[in-house]
Amino acid sequence: MNLIERYEVGPAGVLASRYTSQVIRAAEDGVTAYFFNHEPDVAGIEVLHGGRLGRRYEYGGGLLGVEIVLCDPLDRSDVALLEYRTAFSPTSSRAMEVRRPAYARAENVSLSVRFAGEGRPRTAWTCTWDDPLSEQPVEEERVGPGGDSLYWFLPYIEETVVGFRWQ
């Protein structure tokens, strides 16, 4: 379903936050949670609409995740709106990319990165990776930063990882 992600990079070039708004659709009856994979340097997650934080997980290759327990269980084809904000540790290393994995289909995907202060990139690319942990993108296209931000709209994504990298 629909997906909007807005990243903020602070003046020191460190990823500060990500705001996510997405509509999810249940593939079966009795869906009670959405699983949110996240980066290791996440300092906190705040659910703004649609649920509350549940159990946290650590699994294969250092991946981390948390359940967002839905306000109401969903039956097959029911939809719910989720909004959440992710804060990153201010001691994180300098950000040079952001990635968004999509296992199920997401439509009307809007990704943006806003840079505060002097941390604007000289060069940037939209990228597609075949795996969340892959070093090199399988596809990339150079884009010019528009003022203080990067923006990418995709009609849909599925079974892929998309995002930006910059220098």
Describe it for me?
The chain has 167 residues and is mostly beta strands. Helix content is 0%, strand content 65%. It is built from no helices and 13 strands. The mean pLDDT is 93.
Short description:
This protein has strands at 2-9, 15-25, 31-38, 42-49, 51-59, 63-74, 79-88, 97-102, 106-115, 124-129, 139-143, 149-157, 160-166. The chain is an all-beta fold and 167 residues long.
Largest sheet: 6 strands, mixed
Number of DSSP E strands: 13
Give the % helix.
under 10%
Give the amount of beta strand, in percent: over 45%
Specify the structural class: mainly beta
Uncertain runs: none
Number of helices: 0
Task: Output the strand order for the largest sheet.
Answer: 4-7-2-1-9-12
How many angstroms separate the termini? Answer: 31 Å
* Mean pLDDT, all residues: 93
The SSE order reads EEEEEEEEEEEEE
Rg, rounded, reads: 16 Å
Query: Which outline best applies?
Result: globular
